[in-house]
Amino acid sequence: MTTDQQQLRATVEKAVEDGNGIVRLRPAWVARAFLPPGRRLDLPESQYELGERGGICERWLASTTQADNRVGVAKEGLSILALESHESITLKEAVEAAAETILGAEYAASHPRGLDRLAKIFDYEYRIPYHLHQMKQHAALVGRNPKEEAYYFPEGVPMGKEPESYFGVHPSISEENRQDVLLPHLEQWESDLILQHSRAYKLVPGDGWHIPAGILHAPGSALTIELQEDSDVFAMLQAKAGGRIISKDLLFKDVRPEDRQSYGERFILQLIDWKANGDHYFYENRHTPPLLIENSKQAGGDEHWIFYNTLKFSGKKLVVRPHQTYESVDAGVYNALIWRGRGRFDGHIVEGGHPQMDELLISFAKATQPLVIENSGSEDLVVFKFFGPDVNPNVPMLNPFGSKSAP
Known about the structure:
The protein has two domains: 3-286, Jelly Rolls, CATH 2.60.120; 291-387, Jelly Rolls. The protein has twelve helices and 25 strands. It has helices at residues 3-18, 91-97, 99-103, 105-110, 136-139, 171-175, 183-188, 257-263, 266-269, 274-277, 282-286, 364-367; strands at residues 22-26, 28-32, 55-61, 80-81, 118-122, 131-132, 149-152, 164-167, 199-202, 208-211, 217-218, 224-228, 235-236, 240-241, 244-245, 291-292, 301-307, 314-320, 325-328, 334-340, 342-345, 348-351, 359-362, 371-375, 381-387. It has an eight-stranded antiparallel sheet with strand order 4-1-23-20-25-18-17-16. The chain has a six-stranded antiparallel sheet with strand order 2-3-5-12-7-10, with no helix packed on it.
């Protein structure tokens, strides 16, 4: 270990110690150019538009993932530790330098990829174009990770202009091997009519979905809390969104040049998990409403699972009632977003809707011992907790529904 690495480790360990096991994080804003922002991220109006970079459409939470945009910006998407004496230490650098301190020794040894998940808020004016995230074998071709993901739609937020999501394809397309029905839309690249081959679902506040890699989806305009694998890999299959044609380069963003040259648009069809997309019981097998955690109930509040049905990540929603306290104990390291309300998180002042005061990383040692969360306001204190792979081995799983359900 070099001197610089030793100094970085010492700085991170001191930050964790000074925060009694908790580190505050600065917000990580991410621009996207394919759609305009929904302007629901608590930013001043003048800060949403960024010229050729597009607009601020996402906020990444406790992120160790670099955003992959056409117009690249140093450290875009990477969370920064909120330290007065060090302005630019990323969470990625912190975890690499002091993995045992943050993750716990056992978890650090068995999970060398670190936190290995990405939480975010995404906020678009229109529905995101129909796309997929590559499965493991296809993501590996371009040296990237696959991207399984899940959504939760928080209450009390406008649902936007297109509050329906399209998921999968009509079952007959898969069953009758009519995959080529999508191909003309990819070749012509001129409309949004590819959506006629999918099914739309109305988005409901306080509800959620789980979407594995390889599944086609066009997420609706609801402000969305998302938890996913540590990746920014995708292929856009819808040419027109928000009334304009998007760049066709997004269709091939994570495709090797030789595959694009040899197979053209037809190669994209190989990236699709046709069985899962054509599931007759897609709703039953992918819909994830909140589930009360029975042993979480206390006089001051309770918790629900909101991200489940996978061991790749998991997440909870904690509600602490006005002027009450809640004693929290978890199975491992996590990051917390204070969504609404104000109070103290084991002594740290927190306030929802205030991007400098609403994001924390809770180290293994602190997370696994009782810590007190206090609601000092007159409304519910709402906290989202985000966990990485295998932290919660008891996370609920949906029972596969129907004889034709996806695995």
